Amino acid sequence: MLTHTWQVWATYVVLAVSLSEEQALKQACPSCDATQSCNCSSMGLDFIPSGLTDKITLLDLARNRIKHIRAHDLQQAVNLRTLLLQSNKISSIDEDSFVSLGKLELLDLSNNRLAHLSPGWFDHLVSLQHLHIHGNCYSDLGESSPFSSLRNLSSLHLGNPQFSTIRQGNFDGITLLDQLWIEGSNLSVYEPGSLKSIKKINHMIISIRRVDLFSAIVHDLLHSAIWLEIREIAFNIAEEIQLLSVLSLSFAKKISFKQVLLTDATVPGIVTILEKMPRLVEVEMKDCRLLGTGRWDLEIQANQSQSLRVLTIEKLSIEEFYLFTDLQAVLDLLSLFTKITVENTKVFLVPCSLSKQLLSLEYLDLSANLLGDQSLEHSACPGGWPLLQTLNLSQNSLSDFKMTAKSLSHLRNLILLDISQNNFGEIPDVCEWPANLKYLNLSRTQIPKLTACIPSTLEVLDISANNLKEFNLHLPFLKELYLAKNQLKALPDATSIPNLVALSIRGNKLNSFSKEELESFKKMELLDASANNFICSCEFLSFIQHQAGIGQMLVGWPEGYICDSPLAVRGAQVGAVHLSLMECHRSLVVSLICAVVFLAILILVAIGYKYHAVWYMRMTWAWLRAKRKPKRAPPKDICYDAFVSYSENDSNWVENVMVQELEQACPPFRLCLHKRDFVPGKWIVDNIIDSIEKSHKTLFVLSEHFVQSEWCKYELDFSHFRLFDENNDAAILILLEPIQSQAIPKRFCKLRKIMNTKTYLEWPREEEQQEMFWENLKVALKS
Questions:
Q1: According to the 3-state scheme, what is the secondary structure of 306-353?
Q2: Are 162 and 186 in contact (CB under 8 A)?
Q3: Of 3.50.30.50, 2.40.30.10, 3.40.50.10140, 3.40.1000.10, which CATH number belongs to 640-769?
Q4: Which residues contact 500 (CB under 8 A, 6 or more apart)?
Q5: The whole model's pTM is what?
Q6: Between 165 and 4, whose confidence is greater?
Q7: Residue 303, number of CB atoms within 10 A of its CB
Q8: What proportion of the chain, given as a percentage, has pLDDT over 90?
Q9: Which ranges carry the TIR domain (predicted)?
């Protein structure tokens, strides 16, 4: 029995601890609740949160303040596949921290403060495929390989500005990598043979500054690197190029130069080396600089590489590009190229002699350059680019549409032409085009109207983002038409484009189309008419839903447009849509709503007129003004000794007795009476407020009639706001007849309070006591 009790107690303790840890995890990382992915990034964490369970497969702890990874932090996360710890302050990791992560596939420890790498960290990561350890503080990888147990490793990214040494054996255990990226801008020691243990690297990226070390690395990669990418190195000394001669023996199929510096003195040697590479197919240059004008000191020895086919140059900076030569020295190297891209490099002319040498060229991209109408005519001279099929001239300086067409008309094999984002404007009625042109991109070219200048052989036409108001071309072979972001108010005429399969007319000004219009597109399979001004109706939707093949048709109205319905999801299938009453009968519903609103306004006006709502609003405004004014007026503004508040039923006593007694006294008192002293034509409430403000005291003549008078209540209220509180005596109460406090209406709550807290004068019926009453009143008025 005792043993059983202890077992129950132990189970309870374990469950309690587990629940408390899960609660702590939810507080530290709310996204972990009931999910397999925990996004705890940028939450200011100093430690890996406790309570991680075997349900979690992704844990993102990036951009926190974690400094140390403890052995028990990840002990329960046995099913973790992705662990992101980049951009923390990690400087130490316990040896057994990752021992339970046998299923981990991606580990990112980049941009931390690790001063050394321990092989023990990775011993149990048998499933690891991607490891990022760059941006730390280590200067080397240790005496042996920290990666020897990572048999499934696919990509490795290492290095940092302090990384200086690579030793033999540092990569032992790795035989195959998809990508190896070494950031070695300050690498000073490379022991030959350090990378020879890797038999194949699909993509090798090396950021390095010393040409001699780069040469030594290339020597170890002659037969293993398929794509070699070189970054942040300067080839500016001709003598150093001899060190690169080993590159000519490389089996690499692609060479990329990124952020590399070249000069006229080094280009010839590099080109010669590349020409000798036996399997090189593609050369790529991005964000590089060339110091020179193409007047190369050495003659390039052209060996006519039989494998090189692709050249890509993007954002090549040539400071004196306007002085660049016609590249006669490299003409013999170009005849076998099939694909050339020279993008965003300030090209303003391709010499005719060079164009004629591109005998095998099928693809040419000269986008984002400075080609004009005259220079294009010279570049595309007769005999140039004889096999060209695809030409991209977008984002240049072309403006003459007819001249552009004529310059390219001799390209018999040209199928696809992109001349978008030029500034053509008006186009002529007749143009001469390549005979086999099938794809034409004229988007964003400022064309206001289409003419017969557009070639009739087209199968695909993109005329998006212009100022078109109509489309009336006859294109019998057209299959795809893109008319987005124009000013069209109707669908194109289907008889002019009988073979159309796909139409994009989104972002125009269509508000409807008829059944006959849809039926006329016999082969239509895809229609994108989103972002238009469609007016939804049940009839409109009904006939669309019942068209033949309509299940293939997409019609959408994004949120925010006139038609706000289930069709609001762009590309929703119309067949699944059901409109609400509002969408089916919009006009009727809007009319009913307007009628109800108008009737409600009329009722409110009638009620307000009957119950004097405007008057009550003015009274409320007057009260608010009275409460906000200062409690005491300046002495210069005081005109009366007292303002007299009384009921009209008590006017005989007030006017014939009290006024006579006080105004004929010596010295006389000046009283303010509403009958005599109110300003004619002024609103009565304003008269009351002004009279109280201009009086030194306020005299209230209380009687049964007073407490029944609404105006007396207002005068009492305004007097309360303006002239007294519990600590002053600006109000004088005269009890003309006995009043029981219980008889005072509840709306005279202020009067109840005053009578309970202040002394008042009671008018005596006996004449011998009246003399004393007047004396007391005069003393009160003088105080």
A1: CCCCEEEEECCEECCHHHCCCCHHHHHHCCCCCEEEEECCCCCCCCHH
A2: yes
A3: 3.40.50.10140
A4: 478, 479, 480, 481, 494, 521, 523, 524
A5: 0.69
A6: 165
A7: 12
A8: 51
A9: 638-781
